[in-house]
């Protein structure tokens, strides 16, 4: 429709000019890129600018792919598909983007992006509302971990014939952890991040991650030792519980004092930004320190930071301008109230806003990179596809059923669908299983495809089931 | 004064509580950090969270160091000193921060930070005002390149006895390029970025970079071949001129069309952000492609982007709220004018604002890292110190004299002082000279110290000379 309108408005000439302009920008990039990348002596120095270009292209394509919203799909699906497209260009002889897949700096930015995303989700939530959805989240998480783990273990011989029983145990573990990133992003895109269902899913996915990591630790111990002792098991479980509980209690006490203190040191927006980011990154690090995924920590860090703690940091220029104008003009009554409201809304929004800006820069890198990891070539092997489809069906059904653990008052199907996507944690598990020799290349490829498939099918399904739920 | 007031307010107890809180946060970091870093199997996975922690600490310390502003010094000096302190902790047996110095991801973020900084400076400038200061900038740049190059070449045997004549040629080249980053940041901190002097310095430093790179290319060719042909010389010079001129002309034509086009695709703040960042990063890449420093490209990219092109992207929530309130209350006349003014100021500021937020995250990393590269241990060698002091004096005098090339109507001393700091380009040159075998370790160390010294002495000198200049 958009293009039709453009053409109707006789802007063909302009489009032609844009084409030339794009060609001018990209032709030197295309011509010289390989030269820059292979130019021996200057390689290290030249690779940074090349990464700048990669990031610029990823950001631009990710935003253009947001056009998918016009057909009612969430933007994240567009980013994943852009990723799949970029990642498959080598099939057509275009290798310019290939190095992105293995570049450590891009992987770091992607990981930082998903940490910032979970931190953002955490800021938008709060401990109070988390406790409210606490029991349903916990029930959904437990059922959503036990069902796929046991189903894949017992159905394993039919799903992927000829593996050892420890392989089925491991295969089950890779399917336990819901990737909160995809669902959270989709719900944010849909404007449904504040529904009880959304909070239940996010809460369950976080608990889920913890439970999944405990299961993995247990399964790994069984694979290595043939058994696990009660002491190690207790330590693993205690660490996880202590981190989340302790983090929320200590952090909740610390956050208001910390922000009050630093707002006295310096009131600039830079200081506000530093305090907020500091919380997110330190909690991500602390989570990793106790053996949990950094995103679990980032979420906990965001959870304890609520806009309330940042009242000391308002946009001084804007507030001063407005207050001065109101005073000079002797504004009272209803108008004063209205303007005060606007001041309140638009000076306080900043707290999430600058985390958002960092997110705008980093988060698309994560989703495009995730899409790029999909290996379309593996789909040529019928055996792999069959295995993947069967595991996928079990992976979907078991998580959807977990939605029924939520009890009354919420949309069970919506919660079950929200739990479907697997992600980073599952991929990390799969890599570990492969490196421990439990899984071969075929099983590994099948798992990667299943994880990607759960990620690709969830956004449209979530959009469909959440459409009926009031924000 | 601040601490005295705090104590007077009987907040000693609170400070004590903060101390405990900090200890709680940092003690696990200190205890487990080395374990995480040396934990063989999980090394690659564990290093990302460790980098998160490094970034968090760097950001926080950088912002706390902004307290230096209370004694009238620019914040960047605080960041550099924090860097020197962090980089010297190993002398006291604390090696936790040592790996930052060589970590490629941190170096990337620092490089991206300086690109974003120059991009920001570029956005705040415009081609029109650049042309206005064009001739003085060009004169200052030329004299500021010729003077240090020839002075160090001819005085070389007294400054650093016993080197070859090509070594003196190379040594001169490392002192030609002014590091625009330090000066630009200091002038921004001082609120003097819009003075004619500031624009002249920034303009001269950019031309200077280009001239310095041409000189380096020429000197390198002489070192390698013993001579240089007119063809190669012409190509090098043409590339630089074509890039800046062509970039500004094509980019200036392209920018308004590009932003209008993409504002039709998607009007969200994410799209605005992507378009702006795209320009900065693509220009940085294109500069590197033709053999110039990426920061030159980022500056050119920012120069062609002026807020005017982004009228299509205003903060819709704020503008709507204000317009609705004004309409509902039938506001006219002087008050309407005032409110329109506020709307205009605070909805358009966003264009620079989100680049700023990215800058808040990345720029301190660059300056702290720069500080960390200072090797205090080298100062133990009297021979190195002597050489460094002599080169430093020549490096300062020659750049200050270049200020007199500006002609009438501007503060010559202020411009000369602003040209003193050397930085990334000089360090890159020094590294090349060392790897080409022209310089030994002692000369290299001396150059690094001189570059650091020019950087450390400039902020207070700039603050002193600019205090009298009206913004």
Terminal residue distance of chain A: 29 Å
Using the alpha-carbon principal axes, give the shape of chain A. Answer: globular
How much beta of chain A, percentage-wise?
A: under 5%
- Rg of chain A (C-alpha, Å): 24 Å
Helix run count of chain A = 20
- On the 0-100 scale, what is the average pLDDT of chain A? 76
Multimeric state of these chains?
Answer: homodimer
Tell me what you see in this structure.
2 copies of one chain form a homodimer. Chain A contains 20 helices and no strands. In chain A, helix 5 runs parallel beside helix 13 (294-304), helix 11 (230-265) packs antiparallel against helix 12 and helix 14 packs antiparallel against helix 15. Chain A is mainly alpha-helical. Residues 1-46 of chain A have low confidence and may be disordered. At the A-B interface, helix 2, helix 3, helix 5, helix 11 and helix 12 of A face helix 2, helix 3, helix 5, helix 11 and helix 12 of B.
Question: What are the salient characteristics of this protein?
Answer:
mainly alpha, disordered N terminus
